Amino acid sequence: MAAPPRTVTQLLATLAAGDKQAAADLLPLVYEELRRLAKSRLSKTPPGQTLQATALVHEAYLKLVGEADPGWENRGHFFAAAARAMRDILVDQARRKASVKHGGEFRRVDADEVEVSIDAPATDLLALDQALKRLERDDERKARIVELRYFAGLSREEIAEALGVTTRTIDREWRYVIARLHKELSGGHGGGNTLGDDQRSRP
Length: 203
Hints:
Blueprint (H helix, E strand, L loop, with lengths): L7 H9 L3 H23 L10 H13 L6 H27 L23 H17 L1 H12 L4 H8 L3 H20 L17
């Protein structure tokens, strides 16, 4: 008989203990919950409104972990998985939008698809995803900072807690990341300032 699936709280605990398989098991749970929440929100949201990544990620955390909050270290693991899930959801959505050739209107998606709006054109999101893949090869932590800020909507304090570093480190690395991404996205790898003017100096 197969072992019963582990809960999110159990996965977070074993992940903190060094179980690498827990990370692979956690991401699908986070991904599905974020998609479910997005579909629920979209059914109640007027057209054109933006769903905030921060609200979705925090709501997913409360839904999956409940009151048994395992603490900041494990919370950080959850947010890292949620940020990657949000990135995948948004990039998949951007690819669908970029493939639409007629007039600029976005087709309606079926029940198994989710549209999660974010304030950037589809082409900019795709360019950002490619730039992040290049950054990941050079410095994985810096790429995680962008994921946690841009795709999960965490504050600089939350990012510092999640990554186990100081806010001063986050500020220093954010300045480097923004300078690099701005150069790449405006110099032939993509469009304009995908991260937005208000995020350029501080996460």
